[in-house]
Amino acid sequence: MLDVVIIGAGPIGLACGIEAQKAGLSYVILEKGCLVNSLYNYPANMTFFSTSERLEIGGVPFTSLQSKPNRAEALEYYRRVTMHFQLQVRLFEAVQQVQPLHKGFEVTSTKATYTCKHLILATGFYDIPVRMNVPGEDLPKVTHYYKDPHYYAFQNVLVVGANNSAVDAALETYRKAAHVTMVLKHDDIGERVKYWVRPDVVNRIAEGSIKAYTNATVAAIREQEVDIQTPEGLVTIPNDFVIAMTGYQPNFDLLKQLGIGLSDDNKMHPQYNPDTMETNVPGIYLAGVVCGGLDTHVWFIENSREHAVLIMQQIAAKV
């Protein structure tokens, strides 16, 4: 029986593995995709808001060409950290079921079955997009993940959203000669947009290079056009692709299956003790951005790295 099974090999899951190793605990990290899978699926040209030292884990220095690293540098860094500590990571191994045992848990994955005394969920929130729930959302031309702008060159592109992901997609595709329209739920670009990017998109909208409908929503999507509900009425425009940057959410089904309580407000905060990170289910801990529920602007890599330390102090004391 392992001391710990960690679900998720993102930066915080890796940090948990490092702390487990330092504490002399037996552990394994299970990841349904590649190493730091969420970061891998970020836009190819993405630059982090945080500086490189605030993304460090395990005391390993993170050096980057600029003060704010990009996606490629982060992937390289976390891969090297994994190699440096020789972390016990099992990639492309999705967890299918967790069953309670008398003194622990049985974790069944797509490749094996593990028994452990403690379970850590470091699953993030990037895997399940928040849907618009409109007709046509399942058409192949609609995506909730944006990767590279060249694909959209010379096309009519609708970008839904007003925060960092949407702004990056709009600006990058515009600069690859796409005809870009944005749909903003409120009356302006989000205040949390990176400060060196926000003036750029505001100016492009002001000059008309990027068309923006404010206080608007997507009403329907069809093969060659979309309907936009605006305060003035329904507008139909030509469209080839929809990039829906509408946000993401944790795997609430998994949390519920494990018996972890969720707040009954619209934030769906998981129940846990902030001093120990242990949930209402003894032996199950939360680490990283999953702690925020739908409040996805609370936890980041830089302020949730300490979750790993808190958790392993508790587990080491018990063991």
TrEMBL record:
Keywords: Oxidoreductase. InterPro entries: Auxin_biosynth/cation_transpt, Bdr, FAD/NAD-bd_sf. Pfam families: Pyr_redox_3. One of its GO terms (molecular function) is flavin adenine dinucleotide binding. This is YpdA family putative bacillithiol disulfide reductase.
